[in-house]
Amino acid sequence: MKLSRKALKIKKNIIEEYYIDDAGGLNILQAGLEAYDRLQEARKRIQEEGMALPDRFGVLKPHPLLAAERDARSQWLHALKMLNLDIEPLKDRAGRPSGT
Asked: Torsion over CA of 58, 64, 65 and 67, rounded to 10 degrees?
């Protein structure tokens, strides 16, 4: 599956920042970014069409892509977790947080 420009940029940044060069890591990242692109596509359609759509009787039903959006988000986050990336923001100083 061809990745979007945004996904390719994310891929480049992650590979450079976390030095991912093994086949397994690259395949996990690729699968995760494919899910990321599905997430973005579903989100865009939902924003355009609304979170609920009328059925043939005029009753509003949840947009069918809500489930696809949820699943793709879960797959993207799972891929990041599988890569075991340390994504916690760096602290500006050692010790306890201010105000405690």
From this structure: 140
